Amino acid sequence: MANIEKGELKVPAIKDGSVIDHIPVEKVEPVVRLLDLFDLPYPITIGRNFRSRKLERKGIIKVEKKHFTPEEVNKLALVAPEVVINVIKDYEVVKKINVSLPDRLHSIVKCPNPKCITNNEPMESDFSVLDKKKGILQCKYCNRKIERGEVKLK
Ligand SMILES: [Zn+2]
User: Fold this and answer.
1) Who surrounds ion ligand 1 at CB < 5 A?
2) In angstroms, what is the span from residue 131 Cα to ligand 1's centroid?
3) Which is nearest to 130 in space by CA: 114, 143, 116?
4) Are 58 and 21 in contact (CB under 8 A)?
5) Number of neighbours of residue 80 by Cβ within 10 angstroms
6) How many A from CA of 144 to the centre of ligand 1?
7) Which of 44, 45, 68, 133 is 20 to 30 A distant from 38 in Cα terms?
8) Could you tell me the sign of the dihedral formed by the alpha carbons of 102, 107, 110, 113, in that order?
9) pTM of the model
10) pLDDT exceeding 70 applies to what percent of the chain?
11) What is the dihedral of CA 27, 28, 32, 34, to 10 degrees?
12) Measured in angstroms, how far is the CA atom of residue 140 from the centroid of ligand 1?
């Protein structure tokens, strides 16, 4: 735990896995749902209201034995762009991943346009990411633009 400042991460150490840190408190639940964390067969610790220097209060999720794929990390950028994923190996943080939106979101977001073909045919949604910082997406089928706050996950 050498790289974690004291008092910042008051959760029991894990030997191998991932710690999702700096989660805004209200986004802890969406993150759990987005990554289907309850479906994982590994021990999970979910913490809220930890002290944080960046945020007033933050959430932390610790998942043993799980290393997230780039696709899963990118999904995270959709609801909680401020999170940092600590990759833990042998009780040490070996990597810190800042999440960022990919160029394209395939089959993750639901198009808000009821007339969109993706809501009327058995089709996967497909969005281009127009602005990675602001989280502005555009449906490739009906061109509807949506912002991060309006995103509904499939
Ligand atoms: Zn659409």
Assistant:
1) 111, 113, 116, 139, 141-142, 144
2) 17
3) 143
4) yes
5) 21
6) 6
7) 133
8) positive
9) 0.77
10) 92
11) 10
12) 7
